[in-house]
Design a protein that fits this description.
This protein has about 140 residues and is an all-alpha fold. It has two domains: about 50 residues, no CATH class; about 60 residues, no CATH class. The chain contains seven helices and no strands. α2 runs antiparallel to α3 and α3 packs across α4. The termini are far apart. The model has no long low-confidence stretch (mean pLDDT about 80).
């Protein structure tokens, strides 16, 4: 006779996911970002990815940049140029010059997006102008 479970397996899975996220919710974004950076430097990329993902969703620019890098070069996960481009573009739109550079290169090469040399040049010019007008700003 088959034993019936009180809860369907899908519900059990959802509950397990929620409990795994509790440690993230208990920490502030700066604390979690600091821990994620430590894990990244130790080579624990999957743990760093979890922390960066949470911080990035909360709007942390450094976490967003690290997510772009992780997806771009595949640190601990398969390379995903589309996700990398999306994170870099989000930052570029916020004026982060390093991200603007990455977006320009990816547009030029057609990595993670459709190749668009004209747009790549536009992004590069915008970055150059920002550098000249606001030197030393991110």
């Amino acid at each position: 006779m088959k034993r019936r479970h009180k809860y369907p397996r899908a519900l059990t899975f959802v509950i397990m996911i929620l409990f795994s996220l509790l440690p993230l919710a208990a920490q502030s974004v700066p604390e979690l970002l600091s821990l994620s950076l430590q894990e990244y430097s130790k080579g624990n990329y999957s743990q760093a990815l979890s922390g960066f993902s949470y911080c990035a969703r909360q709007g942390d620019k450094l976490a967003q940049f690290y997510l772009g890098v992780i997806y771009d070069i595949g640190k601990g996960i398969p390379v995903d140029k589309t996700k990398a481009f999306q994170w870099f573009l989000k930052l570029a739109d916020q004026g982060v010059m390093e991200a603007q550079y990455n977006v320009a290169i990816m547009l030029y090469k057609g990595e993670g997006t459709t190749q668009d040399v004209t747009q790549a040049v536009t992004v590069s010019i915008k970055k150059t102008i920002n550098t000249l007008i606001f030197p030393g700003t991110p």
